[in-house]
Amino acid sequence: MREGWAMSRTILHGARVFDGTGRPPAERVTVVLEADRIADVVSEAGVGAGPSDERIDLTGCTLLPGLIDMHVHLGWGSRGFSPTPATIALGAARNVRSAQAAGITTLRDVGTLGGVAMAVRDAVTRGDIAGSRVVPCGQIICMTGGHGSEPPAPPGMAREADGPDDCRRAVREQVKAGAECIKVTTNGPLNVVEFTQAEMNALVDEAHRLGRRVACHASILESTRMAVAAGVDTIEHGCDLDEETVRRMADQGIILVPTLLVTKLVMDRWEEYKAIPMMKSIPTRARRHVESFQMALAAKLTMAAGTDIFFGLGAFESLPAEIEHMVASGMRPTDALVAATHHGAQALGLENEVGVIVRGKQADLLAVTGDPTTDIRTLNHVRLVIQGGRIVRNGGGPAR
To answer: What pTM does this model have?
Structure first.
């Protein structure tokens, strides 16, 4: 090896670079990777190549951080619901691979039974299976009979808890099982607030005491208010907001994960879904969902992006479609891309590792043909996916 080249590098050149911060894409910039890290982001003129370096020409492409889907259930997806832990695990393995191939390099699982999400996370980390990085929440925590425990969710999907002490125990059980964050639900098809304020306070306090962030399903106004008062970290869905609640969320640094697409898809196919008990409140939610999103947008509330695709509703790897729907509902493409990268990393507490293209960060990268800051649909034209410095898709299919 020639003197001065300590290790082989991957040199990505020719692309415009959207770094995830919201700045306009930079032209004529080269991104240099060493091992699993971004070693440099420099002008093209400032990079020389060593004999063992791999150079990849991305002319005509935009390079951006790997996408982050903040709301998935790993066992669900395009082939419908799987009723057993074994089939759920097999579906989850398929889902993390399809997500990775679409440029979604990080997934936050917000409820999968049987410890599947933790097992998949560990299998990906070990290299036993290919797929996106997984940040698991373990079981959903709900009140007895609450959202996540009702049909057709299988037994074990949720941990039902009642009273502040039992709520604390439920959090501890998830942490013991390997959960990296906690998922709670505060309303469901009954259209009533689930949990009491004392129970929610105990859940959030215990999670934070143990160093875990709390994702809260809240799709009616009163349940959102309760979750905000308890100090959750992300509000999932937020279908029914008012200006005061949005201001409080902004003041407290609570991030909204709006999951707009799933509501639209259910309503587009309402005749197929209306008989499912879990679905009966969706028409009520749908009437205010986009309006609430636009209220949050006007208030400049920080948002991340998540899908919540389930029961055969669409492809598991639907985050580009969610981002497109956020844009169609009024968000600027640049802001939607930030939501799906940098803000997702912030919501996970991983902002020092992923979410932006900056020297020293993990090399999680997506290259698409075209410019998604002017045409968000180009997120579907994947040219290259790199996760942890490893090329996992190059051109039409997985590279290695």
So the answer is: 0.95
